[in-house]
Amino acid sequence: MARQQARFVCQQCGAVHAKWTGRCDGCGAWNSLIEEFPREELPGGRLKGGPDRRGGRALGFVGLTGPSILPPRRKTGIVELDRVCGGGLVPGSAILVGGDPGIGKSTLLLQAAAAIAPGNEPSLGQTAIAAYITGEEAIDQVRLRAERLGVAASPLLLAAASNVRDIIASLDREDAPALVVVDSIQTMYLDTLDSAPGTVSQVRTAAQELIRVAKRRGFVLVLVGHVTKEGVIAGPRVLEHMVDTVLYFEGERGHQFRILRAVKNRFGATDEIGVFEMSDRGLVEVPNPSSLFLAGRQAAIGADEAAPGAGRVSGSAVFAGIEGTRPVLVEVQALVAPAVLGTPRRAVVGWDGTRLAMITAVLDTRCGLSVGANDIYLNVAGGLRIVEPAADLAVAAALVSALTDTPVPDAVVFGEIALSGDVRPVGHTEARLKEAAKLGFAEAWIPSGRGKRRGTAAAAGFEIAAIGHLSELVERLAPRHALRGQSLGQRRIGAAS
């Protein structure tokens, strides 16, 4: 029999090459090609360890309408996790959780598995027991973490395994657990493949086999995935297409809270977030994240009001955003300093740097400012990353405030800025204003053109400032004639002379 010819598969994009090269022609990644051997084909066209491909069974097609028994969602007891998943875990679904090392993925899933394990659900006809399968840690290490989290007494099924064949043999039965956590998918392997664990073929095939048995037996499968240095889940991109829900764990190591974000969800809203705070007892859910993100600002405002003659610091604006279905208030901070070198520096944390360049260009061209000639530092407080364009007006307010050294009033700001300088309306205005009123704000700078909603907000005690063009925002913070054509360094030199 002819010898099997090896192939080289890119671990970033899954492209197949006949020989090894330093750079993948498909995605351009360097040193990402791993040697793999194809599965052995037996006489008759059947793969070794696979089904017979010579014949098939006819499919039984059905219509869209018909009797269907949909089991209810399973509640984990962790409200923030249930919110991100769309109201609970759907039986038979597959969830992929990714995040940086040490961010808290294993901690959260161990807490969720322990929370769902004790209760019985008579409506489902079986005991809701969870299983935690680890391929990275030993049993004693998981038990040590469970004792620290205070869940060691929970009747949780625990196993340390990496062979997918053994895992499927343990789960493919009628009394399968209601929730199965596999930590992590990169450590799983199939002995029918010659490649090493973590390669593209192993990750893809192992996930496919686990998802198939989960849908056949009706239990919830949660897969933990490693991430690359770019922050995306490692392995083939098809892995995210195979699962029903993709969750990313975000957060800065300097902050104590973490953000669980849904980027794909077949059974709920996408871009939904759950906020957790890291403590010595594990992850604690935060029911009101707006108060957490604005805690430092509100404390500073209270100190300023107590001290006579003290004022708020310039370069700060409160943005009323929408994350999924939840309104969230967050502080946007900006610092504008004279450029020491020839090329102005840009440092952005929590926002899109390309959109910051657009806002500075509009301020320079349409409003007569000279923001782009200075060094700009922009930060979203709390480690939250903002992706919606409604934050444009808040960023512009923070930049103008920092440039003119004029504090922004205690108001919430939101709106999208066009290249012409016009401020476009955004959705969910009532939800944003309601969340702001809950935290004690009484003023809002919003786009013009929403008269009915402005009347509703005014009736609730809100003072609305309608802004139709970016120049109106500049006029509110500083006189326009004193700013035209002058950079920050020029104005400071003029003031000193």
User: Helix segment count?
Assistant: 14
Low-confidence stretches: 41-47, 120-126, 301-311, 480-497
Mean pLDDT: 83
According to CATH, what is the topology of the largest domain?
A: Rossmann fold
In CATH terms, what is the architecture of the largest domain? 3-Layer(aba) Sandwich
Describe the strand arrangement of the main beta sheet, using strand numbers. Answer: 10-9-11-12-6-13-14-15-16
Number of domains: 3
Q: Which CATH class of the largest domain?
A: Alpha Beta
Helix content: 25-40%
* SS elements, strand count: 25
For the CA atoms, what is the radius of gyration?
27 Å
Q: What does the overall shape look like?
A: globular
Structural class: alpha/beta
CATH superfamily of the largest domain: P-loop containing nucleotide triphosphate hydrolases
Major sheet summary line: 9 strands, mixed
* Share of residues in strands: 15-25%
Euclidean distance between termini CA atoms:
91 Å
